[in-house]
Specification:
The chain has 375 residues and is an alpha+beta fold. Helix content is 15%, strand content 39%. It has two helices and 21 strands. Strands 1, 2, 11, 12, 13, 14, 15, 16, 17, 18, 19, 20 and 21 form a 13-stranded mixed β-sheet that branches. β17 and β18 form a beta hairpin. α1 runs antiparallel to α2. The chain is elongated and about 125 Å long. The two termini are 66 Å apart.
Length: 375
């Protein structure tokens, strides 16, 4: 009879999880991977249970947090006007070119006024004749030799002549085309000597000192938005710096196709920005100086809820406990804990994939497992 000895296989597993670099607000938020403290109970290597899972932890600490929404779009001028010819005529004088800055009321182009001067003179002559006729009819009515209906017709004719004269004077005025707003000529569609028709487009004027950008924001982010919230506008072609802005209005409906709503961001200072430029918009939705913060990499998902593993110390070492947490504002690296943790609690930021509530753990530094210590 032969004797067979069973093979003994010992498996060691070190749980790791992806790391995320810390953002600008991490310095004060306690997101540093915490080494084992000399003042915290630590079992000797020979006494530590074999099944203890090595983990990296961070302290829960108060600090500033800012959350925002990032979107993009094209700048548009709030004031953009297409200037049309109100009367037909031949261009006699062209006063502006593309790029010319104009003030409201400045002359842009002058049409030949001669035909309109003649029309105004004819209308004035006709009006004077009608007034003379009415004066005569008024005397005849007083003498009883004119019917009331004929006098009423004379009054009507005078009024019609007055309107015709006013229209002729208006046409003469409209032969001189003026800027309806202050701004810059962005396009010119007319040439000197050309014949233009009524309602023909002549120029486009934009006011580059007053801009806005329309961005699409997911419906999930709408509850954190309100008119007047601060925002920043940046451009990939302009460096350095950002430009102050604010939320002007939020569309009351959500597009069912995209699940987004239009948000209008108004520029308060435009500097070198120009209409039509593609820009990035960052809207600040929350900002607090004393929020309880943890690194986002500490978060685990238990079904539809969020949780973390808190590390508790006892007389013989450390153990992990899964704690449900409710999260608040956050940025790219840190997130606020509204409920579930207290200042000073340790949370696992590396190694939580292998944990279950009650499992013993040993604390290691981030550097010992190849994790760069965060700030």
């Amino acid at each position: 009879m032969s004797r067979k000895l069973p093979a003994l296989i010992i498996l060691f597993a070190v749980a790791t999880s992806p790391t995320v670099g810390c953002g600008p607000t991490s310095a004060d938020a306690g997101s540093t991977a915490e080494p084992v403290s000399d003042t915290v109970p630590s079992a000797a290597p020979g006494d530590l249970p074999e099944e203890a899972v090595p983990v990296v932890v961070a302290r829960v600490a108060p600090g500033p947090v800012t959350s925002w929404i990032i979107a993009s779009g094209n700048l548009e001028a709030i004031e953009l006007v297409e200037v049309l010819a109100k009367v037909p005529g031949q261009v006699e004088t062209l006063r502006v070119e593309e790029g010319t800055r104009v003030q409201q009321g400045d002359v842009l182009v002058e049409l030949d006024p001669n035909e309109y001067r003649l029309a105004a003179a004819r209308a004035e002559a006709e009006l004077n004749k009608k007034k003379a006729d009415m004066a005569r009819y008024e005397r005849m009515l007083g003498e009883g030799v004119l019917a009331q209906v004929d006098y009423d017709q004379a009054v009507y004719d005078v009024r019609q002549s007055e309107l015709a004269h006013e229209q002729a004077l208006l046409d003469l005025t409209e032969a001189t085309v003026r800027a309806p707003i202050s701004g810059v000529i962005s396009s010119r569609a007319v040439h000197r000597g050309a014949r233009v028709a009524a309602h023909q487009a002549l120029f486009t004027i934009v006011n580059p000192d007053s801009l806005w950008v329309h961005v699409r924001v997911p419906e999930a982010d709408l509850p954190g938005l309100a008119a007047g919230q601060p925002a920043e506008v940046t451009s990939d072609v302009l460096s350095p710096g950002s430009f102050a802005a604010q939320v002007d209005r939020i569309a009351p409906v959500v597009d069912p196709q995209s699940g987004t709503a239009k948000v209008t961001v108004l520029m308060s200072s435009v500097a070198d920005l120009r209409p039509g430029m593609f820009v990035n918009v960052r809207i600040t939705t929350a900002q607090r100086d004393d929020a309880l913060l943890i690194p986002k990499r500490a978060i685990v998902y238990a079904g539809d809820s969020t949780a973390v593993y808190r590390v508790d110390a006892d007389g013989s070492g450390y153990s992990a406990v899964q704690v449900a947490v409710r999260l608040g504002a956050g940025d790219a690296e840190l997130v606020e804990v509204v409920t579930g943790l207290e200042p000073g609690d340790r949370v696992v930021v590396l190694g939580q994939d292998a944990l279950r509530t009650g499992m013993p753990v040993k604390l290691v530094t981030g550097e010992s497992v190849g994790l760069a210590a965060g700030r």
